[in-house]
Write a structure and sequence with these properties.
The chain is α+β, with helices and mostly antiparallel strands. The chain is 36% helix and 16% strand.
Length: 164
């Protein structure tokens, strides 16, 4: 898929001045349906990325607002969160050709402070210079993404999770 330009300045304004988007997703008050929930339990939630840089880009986060990856979770909570990362990553890899599955916890106290993990499947045959951090950076564009695309992919990921 070809990428389209991304309004990085507009995105920065939105995430630095608005409320927590993950808390809004959990509460059901978020302003977009593109972040389709693919898995959730009592503690954690997994949803498709609104601005994917790779097809299948998914985020996993604790439902409670937690900001620090290690300091805000005890070992058991962290283990349960990572178990969801593993389940969702396996499902994403099952429905999309994946040469390498990237996992990263990104965010900042200045914006997107709610702890979250990115799951991003690198498809086969991406030139080396376009892999790794380059592949994850919205500065290099995002995929054109529609609600129909989000519904289709979310259904496929959910189905793969039920099958495993």
């Amino acid at each position: 898929m070809q990428r389209i330009p991304f309004d990085l300045d507009g995105y920065e304004r939105r995430v630095r001045s608005g409320g927590c988007f993950i808390c809004a997703i959990v509460a059901g008050t978020h302003d977009s349906e593109l972040e389709q929930i693919v898995d959730q339990d009592e503690e954690n939630v997994a949803f498709l990325c609104r601005y994917p840089t790779l097809l299948g880009h998914t985020l996993v986060a604790p439902k409670q607002h937690r900001e620090h990856v290690v300091a805000d979770l005890d070992e058991q909570q962290f283990g349960r969160l990572m178990a969801m990362v593993h389940r969702v990553g396996a499902a994403v890899s099952a429905v999309l050709p994946t040469e390498r599955l990237y996992l990263a916890s990104l965010g900042s106290q200045q914006g997107n402070a709610h702890q979250h993990w990115h799951i991003a499947p690198l498809p086969p045959n991406v030139p080396y210079r376009e892999q790794q951090f380059h592949a994850l950076m919205a500065e290099n564009g995002v995929l054109p993404w529609t609600l129909a695309d989000a519904h289709d992919l979310a259904d496929r990921v959910r189905s793969a999770m039920r099958s495993s």
